[in-house]
Amino acid sequence: MQPKSLSEQPLYQYCLKFGSRAMVILLLLTLCSLSISFSLAEHFSLSVQIASHIATIIFSALFKVAYVVRCIGAYHLGHTSF
């Protein structure tokens, strides 16, 4: 499916780029919060561990939202694989 007009194409290109970049950043943040939660837990206070467990849930949910934004951009630019 192609955009309805050429004026919409930059919006979908932005969605594709933004979604891809956000996914990379959120993946790194999720991995950091997971390592604080489990691997490096003995080096952090209990409140920091609790915050990192909560952050893991939030960052992984935002990662999924970024993936949807990326898929929307790719779909409207005519990509067939996601």
Structure overview:
With 82 residues, the chain is mainly alpha-helical. The protein contains 2 helices and no strands. The two termini are 14 Å apart. The mean pLDDT is 93.
Biggest sheet character: none
Could you tell me the radius of gyration in angstroms?
A: 17 Å
Distance between the termini: 14 Å
Low-pLDDT runs: none
> What is the residue-averaged pLDDT?
93
The residue fraction in helices comes out at over 70%
Backbone structural class: mainly alpha
The percentage of residues in β strands lies in: under 5%
What is the string of helix and strand elements? Answer: HH
| Overall geometry | rod-shaped
Number of extended strands: 0
By DSSP (H or I, 4+ residues per run), the number of helices equals 2
Question: What would you say about this model in short?
Answer:
This protein is an all-alpha fold. It is built from two helices and no strands. Helices cover 76% and strands 0% of the residues.
